[in-house]
Structures are given as structure tokens and as C-alpha cells.
Design a protein that fits this description.
The protein has two domains: 173 residues, Rossmann fold (3-Layer(aba) Sandwich); 130 residues, Glucose-6-phosphate isomerase like protein, domain 1 (Rossmann fold). The strands form two sheets. The chain has a five-stranded parallel β-sheet. It has a five-stranded parallel β-sheet with strand order 7-6-8-9-10, sandwiched between helices. Helix content is 45%, strand content 14%.
Length: 339
């Protein structure tokens, strides 16, 4: 992503993305400390939201907590499915950028009607409908976004969930990591992308994202639709070599986030040699594939990977001459509550 070229700078989406390193640097990880004791006493935290307000923030935090072996029971689901669950003994945290997302508002209304009190929310705006239903409503510091595709708000939401789980576990570490993460995020966001890779992606029939179920590849799959208007799919883990190769095409591209070392030869045999498609890796380590080399973010690698993915998607959109800010059908609020 070229930060000085007007072809990029004219888009609010790019400006939102470029705001993100500073949002990371000034993030206040202790703001959730006041509710951490309550959530710890419940022992269960259910994280909900729709689309980008759930996929990366909730899943990345859960993956991190499980790697740490923390005892807090964690789960995530979107609003409609959450209404089918018995959440009586869970603390529930809903994210909604607008605070007007119908699915989570209806979930909170139903929980309130049943006397549920452990309800929390995070939105980009104060005095939101969702916030009015929560026992404690938090507000993002990033401000409104200029583009339809959510970017900087997603990163702040993910930092909030990460900090909250650290507070509950009494293992706060995020604050000291933010300066380095901010710099690494900026580096990954502005790395030059080889023209031949951009051309291959711009001409791809379908862009597949492969990787762990930690929210990164899945969120970038959604962003591919919004930003490049291309078909995309999320292939969790090693799903890419477990049957879907039957319908893949040589024009397709698989972008693999942080490849498993033990699976690279299989991807090479099945996808590159078999299907004859292109596999591109995003990794801090060298791989046998064309690789976007990013800084090693350690246990915050998901954030750095996200920045590199954004970088790729902007380059594709620019190459295709797309208006990055205004998809033809997608809306900023996917399903707005009308009450």
C-alpha cells in the first residue's frame, strides 16, 4: 500500500486503515478492569456480534486464551443462534460498531426479559440502543469509519476482548506490547506487494483464504467480498486439501495465513501440482510458496497478519479500479434494528 500516492490516499478505507497503528498505540487496556472481577466470578463468557464485529475480535481472543490454558469458559456465536442457547449462567458481551445491529439487540432484549443482568456491550457511539440494554456499555475510541468495510473498529474491538480476557485471568500483558505491535502493524500494512502477485489475485476467479480458526483468515474472506468484489471462501485448517480441490480452478488463488510446516508439501502436491493454482503465504517465516514476509508478532501475530491481508486487498482493489469505499450492495449496518 503506497501511503503517498493519491490513487490510494483518496479512499476513506485506506485512511481508516492507516489510522489503525495509532489506535493500537494509544489503546487503554485497563478500561475493562472494572468488570473483570464480575466475569471471573461467573466463570463463563459468551461473546456475540455479527460479521466483522465478532469474527476476529471473539475468535482471536478465544484462541489466545486457550493457548494460555486459562480456566475461563469461552464461546462465541452470532445473535440469532445465541437466542437458541441457555445463557442464564453466562456473562454475555456483545459487539456492534453501530450499536444498532438488530440480531444482538433482539438477543439482549430477550435476555433482559428473562432477568439476565450480566450483559456488556462495546460500540463506536455513546447512547446506542445496544448500550442501553447492557449493564455496562463501553465505547470505542477510534471514531466513525469513512468506508463501508469495517477496519480500524475491528482491531480496537479485538484489542478490547484480548485485554478483557487478560484482566479476567489476572495476567495483564497487552499494555507493554502495544508500541511494538503498532510499528509491526504499520510495517505489514505498507509492505510493497510484488506486482505479479497483485496481477494474479486481480485475475483470480476465486480467492480462498486458508488458516487457523482464529478469526484472521475468516475475517479477510469477508473483506475480500467487500473490498475487491471477488468470490472468496474460508478454508479452515487444512480443509483446502480435503476435498474442495475437486472444484478448484487453475485461475484460483489460495492465500495461506501462517502455514503449518507439516502441511506445506501436501498443499504443494494437491494444489500447486494437482490443481495448478497459485498458493501465496502470509508468514513471518520463509515458505516454498510466494510469501508476503511480515514481522513476527508473537502472540499478537493475528493482528499483523490482518494488516498484511488488508494491504493485499487494497492492492487488488486499486488494480481493478474499484471504488474501495462504496460497494454496490453491502451496507455499513448489515441489519439495522427498527423498534
Amino acid at each position: 500500500m503506497n501511503t503517498t500516492n493519491e490513487r490510494y490516499a483518496k479512499f476513506a478505507l485506506v485512511r481508516d486503515m492507516l489510522d489503525t497503528p495509532e489506535i493500537i498505540a494509544r489503546f487503554q487496556p485497563n478500561q475493562s478492569a472494572e468488570i473483570a472481577t464480575d466475569i471471573a466470578s461467573v466463570g463463563k463468557l459468551f461473546m456475540t456480534g455479527e460479521g466483522s464485529s465478532r469474527i476476529f475480535p471473539a475468535k482471536n481472543a478465544i484462541a489466545y486464551a486457550r493457548r494460555q490454558g486459562w480456566p475461563l469458559e469461552l464461546h462465541t456465536e452470532a445473535g440469532r443462534q445465541s437466542k437458541e442457547y441457555d445463557l442464564a449462567n453466562w456473562a454475555v458481551f456483545a459487539l456492534s460498531n453501530s450499536g444498532r445491529t438488530a440480531e444482538v439487540i433482539e438477543l439482549y432484549q430477550s435476555l433482559r426479559e428473562r432477568g439476565h443482568s450480566q450483559l456488556f456491550s462495546l460500540t463506536a457511539f455513546p447512547d446506542s440502543k445496544l448500550g442501553s440494554l447492557a449493564r455496562r456499555a463501553f465505547v470505542l475510541s477510534c471514531g466513525p469509519e469513512g468506508a463501508v468495510a469495517a477496519t480500524k473498529s475491528v482491531i480496537e474491538q479485538a484489542l478490547f476482548h484480548r485485554a478483557l480476557l487478560e484482566q479476567v485471568a489476572k495476567c495483564p500483558a497487552l499494555g507493554s506490547q502495544l508500541p511494538v505491535l503498532s510499528n509491526q502493524f504499520r510495517e505489514a500494512l505498507t509492505l510493497p506487494i510484488p506486482a505479479e502477485l497483485v496481477d494474479k489475485l486481480a485475475n483470480a476467479k476465486t480467492i480462498y483464504w486458508a488458516g487457523r480458526n482464529d478469526g484472521v483468515a475468516e475475517e479477510l474472506t469477508l473483506k475480500t467480498n467487500e473490498i475487491t468484489r471477488k468470490r472468496s471462501d474460508f478454508l479452515e485448517g487444512t480443509y483446502a486439501v480435503h476435498g474442495i480441490e475437486e472444484v478448484m480452478d487453475p485461475s484460483d488463488v489460495v492465500i495461506w495465513i501462517d502455514p503449518y510446516a507439516g502441511s506445506m508439501s501436501k498443499f504443494e502436491d494437491v494444489l500447486v501440482k494437482g490443481v495448478k493454482l497459485t498458493v501465496i503465504a502470509i508468514s513471518s517465516q520463509p515458505t516454498p510458496f510466494p510469501t508476503i514476509r511480515i514481522p513476527d508478532g508473537g502472540d499478537l501475530s493475528g493482528f499483523v497478519q490482518m494488516a498484511a491481508g488488508w494491504n493485499l486487498l487494497v492492492e487488488i482493489g486499486i488494480a481493478l479500479g474499484i471504488n474501495l469505499d462504496k460497494p454496490e450492495r453491502a451496507r455499513k449496518v448489515g441489519n439495522e434494528f427498527i423498534g
